[in-house]
Design brief:
Elements: E1 5-11, H1 18-26, E2 36-42, H2 49-58, E3 65-70, H3 76-86, E4 91-94, E5 99-101, H4 105-115, E6 119-130, E7 155-156, H5 159-162, E8 171-173, H6 174-180, H7 199-209, E9 213-226, H8 233-245, H9 247-253, H10 260-282, H11 290-320
Parallel strand pairs: 1-2, 1-4, 2-3, 6-9
Antiparallel strand pairs: 4-8, 5-9, 6-8, 7-9
């Protein structure tokens, strides 16, 4: 039996989060004419994730296959690549283990992919489901929490203007990923104490550079569960620092090789100018205003991003010798 659509859920210690996602997937509607599957990729969890999925498989509906795979190498990029390798359909939709899809998410994702054959990837409309009300001062940067609200009409992404969508709720054309996305990305995701972000954008950069379109599909709606600790200052600063540190690498991927030396210097000058200007304008509020301290952390990390990336590359070269 051929599979028309795959839902892939990478998870790390998701035993308390996965049940809600799986229950939402069991209530999907309008799927009588397609065959689909669910893949759980356990990214080296240390809790009871494996047993949880085994228990679900014993009582799982026969019309829908629930697979479990283990990926020992830590990092979301490795878990997503594992899902791509194991999926049996051409269209693979990624959900994080804290994403609750609307009951028409699967059919909306499938139909958009069939209708838009030039789309190598397309993203969901993502709303934050906050367990506590976020502080008003954080509202300008809440989109960094993988919230993607861009209106009710489909949008074709232009990375130089709109960037790339988050990986949560993203649908990938499997063969496109296998042909153009390297097995090992430079940015692998947040591992341990490292918040170095951008693995989703790096993968999408390769797809975009290969000539495929990337879309926003508002018909695919999910809720992103956001617990209180993700609104704490320490978490937000780490998050924005990781985003800033990945900035140089992602910028370079969108440029031709001959352009990179020129633009590296221009970006460094521009980023330094922005950092100094922001600091001079806001230095009195750094300790008292959470938004200011978070934005400053991002600007500093963006400025040092080229040196940070270079240091990682040098370490890799040193290991070879």
């Amino acid at each position: 039996m051929s599979i028309d659509f795959t839902v892939a859920i990478p998870t790390y210690n998701g035993v308390n989060r996965l049940p809600q996602v799986l229950e939402r997937l069991q209530t999907q509607i309008c799927l009588n004419n397609i065959n689909w599957e669910i893949i759980i990729v356990d990214n080296n969890s240390t809790d009871g994730t494996a047993q949880l999925i085994k228990d679900y498989q014993h009582n799982w509906p026969k019309y829908l296959t629930l697979h479990y795979y283990f990926e020992p190498e830590q990092g979301l990029a490795f878990a997503r690549n594992k899902a791509i390798q194991e999926a049996k359909s051409e269209l693979v939709g990624f959900l994080d283990d804290d994403n609750l899809p609307a009951n028409n998410w699967v059919i909306s994702a499938y139909e958009f992919g069939k209708k838009n054959q030039k789309a190598g990837a397309y993203s969901s409309q993502i709303h934050g489901r906050f367990e506590v009300e976020p502080p008003a001062q954080l509202r300008p940067i809440l989109f960094y929490l993988a919230i993607n609200e861009r209106g009710s009409q489909p949008i074709l992404y232009e990375p130089q203007k709109k960037g790339f969508p988050p990986g949560a709720g993203l649908v990938i054309r499997r063969q496109v990923w296998k042909e153009y996305v390297p097995n090992r990305l430079f940015l692998v995701g947040r591992v341990g104490n490292s918040f170095l972000a951008g693995e989703d954008a790096e993968a999408l950069s390769y797809i975009y550079q290969a000539g495929w379109e990337i879309w926003y599909n508002p018909a695919m709606v999910i809720e992103h569960i956001i617990p209180p600790w993700r609104l704490e200052k320490s978490y937000f600063i780490s998050l924005l620092r990781g985003i800033g540190l990945s900035r140089y690498h992602l910028r370079m991927l969108l440029l031709k090789k001959w352009q990179r030396p020129i633009f590296s210097l221009l970006y460094l000058i521009n980023d330094g100018y922005k950092l100094i200007l922001y600091y001079l304008y806001n230095y009195r509020k750094i300790k008292t205003d959470m938004l200011v301290s978070c934005e400053l952390a991002r600007l500093i990390a963006t400025f040092i991003s080229p040196f940070y990336v270079l240091s990682i590359q040098l370490k890799k070269i040193m290991r070879l010798y």
